[in-house]
Specification:
The protein has 357 residues and is an alpha/beta fold. The chain folds into 2 domains: 65 residues, Transferase, Pyrimidine Nucleoside Phosphorylase, Chain C (Transferase, Pyrimidine Nucleoside Phosphorylase, Chain A, domain 3), CATH 1.20.970.10; 251 residues, 3-Layer(aba) Sandwich (Pyrimidine Nucleoside Phosphorylase, Chain A, domain 2), CATH 3.40.1030.10. The protein is 52% helix and 11% strand. It is built from 16 helices and 7 strands. Strands 3-2-1-4-5-6-7 form a 7-stranded mixed β-sheet, with helices on both faces. Strand 1, helix 5 and strand 2 form a beta-alpha-beta unit. Helix 4 crosses helix 11 and helix 7 packs antiparallel against helix 16.
Length: 357
């Protein structure tokens, strides 16, 4: 590992980029656990300061994808890859994903515990607070996704080498190449992805990488808290990437009648209460800002992924689904089925222990 650290972080000018082959070797040493935490930290910091190039990012994606667990292919699903740092405002992508799942569009969420530098509330924490059991065997997870059309995968379970690097990334306290790598692991060989980025530079890096990861339709969004959630208080420019090219698209919420102040930071308990009320069909005036954000983002995704014919139809459908409590129905089934599998596995373990005794 020392030679790769010296190559990109020796202090010499100009700094040298690694070739694809060299970066594969460096990533391989990190993924296999042959390098120490100190060496991993030094390499990631040096690469961050230098700025990774396409060959280096492609190598890391290829290596860590090769170490990731492969699930049954759900090609028509949508992978939602949010910020590694978690969120401080309402995680719109959760109720939006529940709404899309309610019309039979499989949604795959992934992530781990929130990391620095901003360290907000992770999707893991949010789902556990709702009662979703996240630690399930692969086959059980696949079965539940098939029946409920929604699933969540912990990054460290999906790719154990990423889990081993968690402590290093926490101690570094910086966004590194690993933030991008974990967003494009694509565990279910999905054709569709919506990926949140913090900076336009990260968006540019993802343009070729998203295709390399097997996505046929990728929407790259510099959203709220660096997430895949678009605000309705301002216009946004997103990137749409396919194997045939990419294009920019201006999203103008006011054009569709959406006007709102920005979402504000909230504590976990506040987020849970608001989400519970909205997915339960509550359309009280004090929830209009958050509810409109959910309808807007759900309507966009319904149109982007060809579930409706127009944006207006998407917004109307999202509003109708909320009023009919379809998101709540999906969440209830998700909680019940994941916990049923957990109980079944627990009884099975107890039975095996008694037989062994």
């Amino acid at each position: 590992m020392k030679e790769w650290i010296q190559a990109i972080g020796s202090g010499q000018s100009p700094l040298r980029n690694l070739t694809y082959e060299e970066a594969v070797q460096a990533a391989g040493v990190m993924a296999s656990g042959e390098s120490t935490d100190a060496q991993c930290a030094a390499f990631l910091i040096a690469l961050c300061m230098k700025g990774e190039v396409h060959e280096e990012l492609a190598a890391f994606v290829d290596v860590f994808r090769s170490h990731a667990k492969r699930y049954q292919a759900f090609k028509d699903s949508l992978v939602c890859a949010g910020p590694s740092e978690g969120r401080h405002s309402l995680p719109l992508t959760l109720p939006v994903s529940l709404l899309l799942a309610s019309v039979g569009f499989p949604q795959v969420l992934q992530g781990g515990d929130a990391l620095p530098p901003k360290q907000g509330i992770s999707m893991t924490t949010m789902l556990e607070s709702f009662g979703v059991e996240l630690d399930l065997p692969t086959k059980a997870w696949e079965t539940i996704l098939f029946h409920t059309h929604i699933g969540f995968i912990r990054t460290e379970h999906l790719c154990p080498p990423m889990g081993r690097l968690k402590q290093v990334r926490e101690q570094i306290g910086l966004r590194t190449i690993m933030n991008t790598v974990e967003q494009v692991l694509n565990p279910v060989s999905a054709s569709n992805a919506i990926i949140g980025v913090h900076q336009k530079k990260g968006m540019e890096a993802l343009v070729p990488i998203s295709v390399r990861s097997g996505f046929q339709n990728s929407y790259l969004i510099q959203g709220i808290d660096g997430s895949e959630d678009l605000p309705i208080s301002q216009n946004s420019v997103i990137r749409i990437v396919t194997p045939w090219g990419d294009e920019s698209l201006l999203i103008e919420p006011q054009k569709f009648g959406f006007q709102s102040a920005p979402l504000i930071p909230l504590e976990l308990e506040e987020q849970l209460v608001i989400l519970q009320r909205i997915i339960a069909g509550d359309d009280s005036p004090e929830l209009k800002r958050e509810r409109d954000h959910i309808i807007f983002n759900a309507g966009l995704r319904l149109k982007w992924f060809d579930k409706v014919g127009s944006y207006e139809e998407g917004f109307q459908l999202a509003d109708s689904l909320l009023r009919r409590r379809e998101a709540q129905k999906v969440l209830t089934r998700w909680v019940e089925q994941t916990n049923r599998y957990k109980d079944f596995l627990h009884r099975k373990d107890e039975s095996s222990s008694e037989q062994t005794g």
